[in-house]
Amino acid sequence: MDDYGLPGNLPHLNSRGLAGQDPLICSSMHVARWRTVCVAPGVACIILLLAFATATNSLAASGTDDEGIKFFESRIRPVLVNKCLSCHSQDAAKANKLKGKLLLDSRAGVLAGGESGPAIAPGQPAQSLLIQAMRHQSLEMPPDERLGENVIRDFVKWIEMGAPDPRDGRKVDLRVVNLEAGRQHWAFRPLNTSALPQVGSEQWVRNPVDRFVLAQLQQRNMTPAAEADRRTLIRRVYFDLIGLPPSPDAVKQFLADRSTTAYQHLIDRLLKSEHYGERWARHWLDVARFGESDGSDVRENKLRPDAWKYRDAVITAFNKDLPYNEFVALQLAGRGLYTKSSLAAGLARFPKLGTTLKDSDNPNDKMFHRLDDMVSTTGSAFLGLTIGCARCHDHKIDPITAEEYYRLTAVFFSQVKVEPRASDRQIPLEIREPHLLAGGSWKRPVRKVTPGFVEVLMREESRSEDWISGKLNPATRDPRYALALWMTDVNHGAGQLLARVIANRVWQHHFGRGIVDTPNDFGFLGAPPTHPKLLDWLAGELLRNGWRLKPLHRLIINSAAYRQASSARWVETDRDNHWIWHYQTRRLEAEIIRDNALSVSGSLKQQMHGPSTRVGSLAGGDAFEENPRTWRRSVYMMAPRFDTHPVLRVFDAADNFQSIGARTVSTTPSGALFMLNASFLWQRAASMAERIEQEAGKEAGNQVEHIYEVAFARPPTDEERVLGIQFLQQTHDEDSKRGQPVLVHYCHAIMGLNEFIYIR
Amino acid sequence: MSRIDENSTWKMNRRACLGGLGLGQIALSGLLAEADAAGSAARSPLTPRQPHITSRAKNVIFLFMVGGASHLETFDHKPLLNKYAGRNAVDLFSTDELDGLNPEKDYSRSKVLQPVFSFKQHGQSGMWVSEIFPHLSKVVDEITMINSMHTASSIHSVGQILMHTGYLRPGFPSLGAWVTYGLGSENHNMPGFVALRDGISSGGPTMYRSGFLPGTYQATVIDTQAGRFQLDHLQRPGHVSLNQQRRQLELMTRLNALHRDQHASQGELDARIDSFEKAFRMQGVAPELFDLNRESKSVRNLYGDTSFGKQCLTARRLVESGVRFVEIFNGSQGRRWDAHGNRGGLINNHRTNAARTDQGIAGLITDLKARGLLDETLVVWATEFGRTPFEEANREAKIGRGHHHYGFSMWLAGGGVKRGFTYGATDDLGMHAVDSPVSHHDFHATILHLLGLDHKRLTYRHNGRDFRITDVHGRVVDDLFV
């Protein structure tokens, strides 16, 4: 640990076992949003459209004006009583009939409003939600009848008068987040440590992973597929662990090693390769919304020249197998703790990797955009929780309150430095201390908040203050350090969910699909785990191995489940392979497709680490001209937001504006056109042809043989060999007139094949 | 909810197609044949789909004026501004109203500015149009004018993103992607959504990307800035002949089929085999589609000899060929409609912009109508916001107006909307949309409705939540429908 400059003062990280755990967690779907609302299907909820123009500062100074009160009593109150209070009063709340968390039975309730924002803006009827709703413009209230224009006019007049209202009484706290119910959600319960499942036959079982998989298959009367052949396996594990194809020599060596440990040794060798870090860092960079520009505006997309240091630190962390809890802690706790090493300093960049809001000069907007990005990404990346959804109101689905959201913004508050631009007018920063905001708007601060965490993830007797008070480490009361402590605290904090989420991500990248199919959402709306006990067992193994990921890779890759061949046996029963009855063919990621093309053509530069290489320009198309300088692995290509290499566009690389847990796989003609015509691939084909000729000579049969070994780690079948030889021996008049030898065309076709970009 | 099941169209079975054919019998010669094309289209995610409700329009041509076209100089006639001209903005409007606009600007010393162009009523409908659109004035009887648009931001990038995705931040699917996702495309040789842009505007690619929707639905982008009307990578490299490519594809099709037969469960592999066929067909079809010389001289003259006119004519050709959604960005490079005093001044700016687009727009409407395509094609003229009723207080010699999202004008034509109809109004000074306001959400809901899509049912599950373009808003403005 000292290697990394860690002071070793995260007291709970390694020392405590799993005894007495019951961490309780929340759920997620990460949609970081800017003054918008997250909603469950069917739950009505409206934003105040004119939020920018809302005025609440004239808060009814005229509240006790006699004439006003008289008007209220004669014209307003009767309508409220007859038309509104059945759904919008404390009585309604008691009867479980309250709608939109809006109370109209008190002055405070009217002014505070419900989940859509304040009901009225005193003095400004046109901007009062209540009036819009009565006119059925935004909301439609009352829902089943439109009140007469004369009634609406009365309300307009009342609001113009400043909304005089003699009623008092406070708006009660309507927190409906139910912690007890929330703690029963599968993801928030303690890790299940029950015994390994019993299976009918032990024959197939290589390690405990297989017991969980087989038990589920047997329950469904399904059977696992046979083990894949060695050539398939070596190509699979190469791409899986290091993202590069095995060389023909490596394949030969593996085939020649008849010892029972050949496969384990292969895995060990790959896990020690520095390419492992390059491969697996890329998975994490998606989750961390890593980009190398501020990403707010395509015209002023300012580059961040030092952002690559985060990427390098992640690569190093994976290669050194830095315990995941420390990996997380270093990203959250940041400076003030571990600035000694470049690894620590690099990882500490995590909170600030996100986009900035450039198009507003209002420092308040900028600040809350940054804070939201930090809180939302922290929730999605580490905990699989959509904490960002609690920005404007308590989370609709998961047990996370707006108060908790704002307490988390308080943790990062010191991180947010606003850099005001020269402008006509200097707008003051209005919120200088962390506040709970109504409706997500800094124009409506409710009260100050102190740093704090998500309560449903704590043992019942624990409080955020336990981590913040300095009890665990008297040296610091930095709230970011406290967040790191809480996040990684297996016994009292979020540590067990943290372990589940990363165990799922590791599984996801080995099989193409997580045990939880929504890796960024472990909440109530996320997909439930297909193998909950397996997930918990894997998370437990992670903890038992001191949070190191490499043992987890070994476990999974050595399992019989992982070694299965692709099959069609149960495709009608389980097309998407939820029950892992075979190894599902899957496409390589955009970056790996490019790396593969560079690798088989012998062009890949082994230049690790350091500043990113800029490839191409904003112009798109073939303006992304590559040259030997750019032929590094794709993880080192500069990742300015907006401005991406065509290979990344056509093969669904992650959009680095927000945390991405799982990429989509789309198949488009644009992708095919890229494969057919892009100069990058034609150049690769030319290099590959040169390499093949050098290594296999000029005879067509040998060339075909070698190309298959290089590109697919296997010899061609008879049919494939014949087709290849026929293609290479064809002579056509036009070929002699055109520049490229037919071998180049053949290599180019090989790189366009499905087998080139899919592993099985 | 009737979320479209991606898998049902995505995971298709190619075995049926290839299984019966012996090696060597799968000739690429069939690739260009319509029958084969129809066969693969039936398995594609762009397969035409049934709308939720009866549709009035089939296709969309979306014209987007980048930079914020002034409603007060185009379609919103406000004679009272002449009377108030010179009055201080702060005397007429509240601080909140002024502060809610572009945060970069200080309007405390701004004065009301009269419309800089004269207005006349045109057509049988008597629709008001300013003098800078002489061609458009002649087709106003085909148009539904909305004078009560409003959105939530006076910032260019945010306003542009709002108008295209319904959300304030980059990363959400654009309207064209939603429409293509909902309806598929009728041209299996071409993408369902094509964007013709003249540079990159501040809202960036989010305006035509598919966000979290599958990439199939993103626009295929053609940057016409350098007078180039072509898709990326459409051109075969110079050293590859058509026959060479055909032989190469034939080999790939055979080898892919062999590979595919070992993977019975993989619809994706089939889709990719199809994508090559489609790409090959696109190479054959697209250059012709983009070749405007195939139009008669009189038609080309109708659209005018401007880049925008060519964009419009291209859009018509694409829509005619079955492309579902074509968007034209006008003035991307430099936000050309952004009529500040320090950007050439309002008069010069809008006169130039109108001159550049007027004939193309009118030509498009006229041409679509003459071909009987206007009924099924919805033409949309949109912009990210309008402009302030008052001048910016700056030291520039030229006058300009600021960004203004409280009330502005956009219009629709064809595709089942009323003809010669004006809807909604701003107040007498053009400040707020007061009569029948239409938000960007309402606007999206209305366009989807015309296409037969219910904005509340057109959803996509992402990160554990069903998303729609209107989020939790949107009102279908059915007053606009025939």
Keywords, separated by commas or semicolons:
heterodimer, A: 760 residues, mainly alpha, 4 domains, two-stranded antiparallel ribbon, 32 helices, 4 strands, B: 482 residues, alpha/beta, Alkaline Phosphatase, subunit A, nine-stranded mixed sheet, two-stranded antiparallel sheet, 14 helices
Question: Count the helices of chain B. How many?
Answer: 14
Count of helical segments of chain A? 32
Radius of gyration of chain B: 24 Å
- Domain count of chain A: the total is 4
* Binned strand content of chain A: under 5%
Main β-sheet description of chain B: 9 strands, mixed
How would you sum up this structure, described in words?
The complex is a heterodimer of chains A (760) and B (482). Chain A has 760 residues and is mainly alpha-helical. Chain A folds into four domains: 2-27 and 277-511, no CATH class; 51-160, no CATH class; 587-672, no CATH class; 677-759. Helices cover 42% and strands 1% of the residues of chain A. Chain A contains 32 helices and four strands. In chain A, strand 1 and strand 2 (445-448) form a beta hairpin. In chain A, helix 9 (230-241) packs parallel to helix 11 and helix 11 packs antiparallel against helix 22 (549-558). Chain B has 482 residues and is of the alpha/beta class. Chain B has two domains: 1-44 and 241-289, no CATH class; 57-229 and 299-480, Alkaline Phosphatase, subunit A (3-Layer(aba) Sandwich), CATH 3.40.720. Helices cover 31% and strands 16% of the residues of chain B. In chain B, strands 1, 4, 5, 6, 7, 8, 11, 12 and 15 form a nine-stranded mixed beta sheet that branches. Chain B has a two-stranded antiparallel ribbon with strand order 2-3. In chain B, helix 9 (242-260) packs antiparallel against helix 10 (267-289) and helix 12 packs parallel to helix 13 (346-370). Chains A and B meet through helix 26, helix 29 and helix 31 of A and helix 7, strand 6, helix 9, helix 10 and strand 17 of B.
